[in-house]
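Re: that backbone. Tokens:
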């Protein structure tokens, strides 16, 4: 188990302890990569498809123009691809910046 962050479309942040092999279960479906934060060895994933006609959300600056269904999970791995704890304190600051920048750019469909 490693320390990761789960973030909602409203930028609520949950610190979770999970094995990376269980991320798709945590997000209730197949996952897709939507971004990377190389300075933190961090990767961003979300569910690949909507559930029950759920609307997507996006953050054009940080998610490479991806449509995000449900929550995102941010997790880290080392240079060999092994799972490691995420530096949650520094990532929480970045997520705060995402949320404040989104106030004029946030979109759902």
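Recovered sequence:
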């Amino acid at each position: 188990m490693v320390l990761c962050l789960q973030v909602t479309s409203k930028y609520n942040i949950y610190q979770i302890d999970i094995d990376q092999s269980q991320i798709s279960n945590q997000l209730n479906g197949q996952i897709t990569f939507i971004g990377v934060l190389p300075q933190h060895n961090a990767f961003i994933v979300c569910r690949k498809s909507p559930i029950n006609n759920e609307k997507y959300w996006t953050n054009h600056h940080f998610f490479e123009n991806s449509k995000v269904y449900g929550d995102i999970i941010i997790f880290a791995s080392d240079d060999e691809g092994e799972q490691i704890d995420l530096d949650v304190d520094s990532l929480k600051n970045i997520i705060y910046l995402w949320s404040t920048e989104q106030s004029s750019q946030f979109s759902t469909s």
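The chain has one domain: 2-108. The CA atoms of residues 59 and 102 lie 7 Å apart.
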